[in-house]
């Protein structure tokens, strides 16, 4: 039987090493954000890189109990008091392309805009307009744009300013803003959201597209654990009762 292969972590009789670093040294000298970077990139981050990852994780942690992932966790916690893990997992399972997972598809879109600009020798702004037009004609939703409640996502400017201050900002942020502008011109004014900001920064830090979803999950789990804990501490079991209006067939007899 062939053994599994991994380059992430190993444990022997006396030590645990992550990407070659002794875990006790990381415990004393790194941060959790630095560890997330190390796990995914295979190297320790610079101080600015660690600060940005930390900001991203904070930014996606918890927007409120009404977000689909948080609501899913609380719903399961309301009906299942025996399993904390089931409630947290329910919230993670609610993350997809429509909620929290748009970072991955937005990273792919950003890469496509930059590639078209280079191949066609046009500006990133013109490439964004062309791709958004293609998506609009195909009836496709532009990821990383729009928010159910916010007219402007305050997290975006903070993250982009931080990225510029630490010299991480690059074509990813330029492309994200160009996509936002193209949507505003061709559809209607809609804000770049946290998924779009996360995608732009991770692109500029050299992460592959799946990190757009994975990093979101890492940050959101922190919020989900708090939502589940609060549901257990403050609310009675089975307290969530969703009103349902039946609009099916009336009473019928079997003939």
Task: Provide an overview of this structure.
The chain is mostly helical and 255 residues long. The protein is built from 11 helices and 3 strands; from the N terminus they run βββααααααααααα. The protein has helices at residues 23-29, 32-41, 47-60, 68-79, 84-93, 102-120, 124-137, 154-165, 171-186, 194-204, 211-234, and strands at residues 9-11, 16-18, 21-22. Strand 1 and strand 2 form a beta hairpin. Helix 6 (102-120) runs antiparallel to helix 11 and helix 9 packs antiparallel against helix 10. It is globular. The mean pLDDT is 95.
Concise account of the structure shown:
This protein is mainly α and 255 residues long.
Radius of gyration, Cα only, in angstroms?
22 Å
Name of the CATH architecture of the domain at 102-204: Orthogonal Bundle
What would you give as the CATH superfamily of the domain at 102-204? Cytochrome P450-Terp, domain 2
Provide the succession of SSEs: EEEHHHHHHHHHHH
Spans where pLDDT lies below 50 across 5 or more residues:
none
What percent strand? under 5%
- What's the shape? globular
Count of extended strands: 3
Structural class: mainly alpha
- The name CATH uses for the topology of the domain at 102-204 is Cytochrome p450-Terp, domain 2
Helix content: 55-70%
Query: Largest sheet, described in full?
Result: 3 strands, antiparallel
Please report the distance between the alpha carbons of the first and last residues.
60 Å
The helix count comes to: 11
> So what's the CATH class of the domain at 102-204?
Mainly Alpha
Please give the order of strands in the largest beta sheet: 1-2-3
Mean pLDDT: 95
